[in-house]
Design goal:
The protein is 48% helix and 14% strand. By secondary structure, the chain is an alpha+beta fold. Helix 3 crosses helix 6, helix 4 crosses helix 6 and helix 7 crosses helix 12.
Length: 360
Amino acid sequence: MMKTVMNWKQDDSGGVHVLRAAMLPVALLAMAGCHRGHNAGVVATVNGHAITRTDMDKAYKDQLGDTQQEPSQEQADSLRLNLLRGLIDEEMVEQRAAKMNLTATNEEVDAKLAEMKAPYTEEEFNARLKSSNHTLEDVKHDLRRSLTDNKLLNKEINSKITVSDTDVSSYYNAHKSEFNLREMQYHLAGIRVTSVASAQPGNLQNSKATNDDEARKKIQTLKNRLDSGEDFGSIASNFSEWPETAPNGGDMGFVPESQLQATGQIYSAVTKLKAGDSTDIIPLLDATSKKPVGYSIYKLLSRDPAGQRELNDPRVQQAIRQQLRDGRSQLLKNAFYEMMRDQTKIENFFAEEIFKNDAH
């Protein structure tokens, strides 16, 4: 089950959360209105495995947190539909991993849990657990899912990606000017959530906050998931409301120091990071009113001093190799998930229920 995870700091090597845009399948439209018997407590099945209304409502409650404003019925149904899509995808991936004997073991989960707990005393850890309204079993469940996803993706995708020296050389020759730095450059990735309801999200989930309260809750949920070890690029692709960067896993490219200095709080936060680390949540302020219009998180990928970088520079080769690998990985992931969905029998009774009740 998808949950909001506690705010614990880890590296970014965790599993990828497998969510994409929530769309009503064409096949569903064809069978809308056709009543098929099923348990009222079951909202979907994945290859016959039930996802219960309790599962969906728990995810819905976790997503809302302590939000004071109650969503309208239409907003609530839309959110539940998105969350159910996520639960379906999680079950689909877990079934695929189980068939390949890639489900994370108890030993792997315990090792990751120990890594998570390492920065804290037992009392501090338990206090964070209590404040988040999660149990230790909740944490282990999320860790098992994350580790299992990661193992599956490594087996099916990452292990099959190769970047040759010729690939690296060709890219460098075609983009040599990009490696001539006239000033310090910060290679950044970002996740942004805005309270502007009319803005286009541009992410795979078509996930959008519609007011400040929703934006605050959403960015905190994403921060918690990042801190629990989930991949920054995957979170950005699925949930960031930054159309220019979300399709590239939040990659903002290289930002000159002079340009970054003009951002004030962002510059101050980024310059304190080590490569691979992420900032805390930073408010996006309206230039006139100075009131928050959104929230952001930035990850420092690298910090590069001024000057021409040659192809024989290990940093250049590593950066090019990683960029080519990430691009191929994202393409293969998208194709892999669509293939899995094509090969999975999914019945979404909740979607049918909404369509039947609201389509007049």
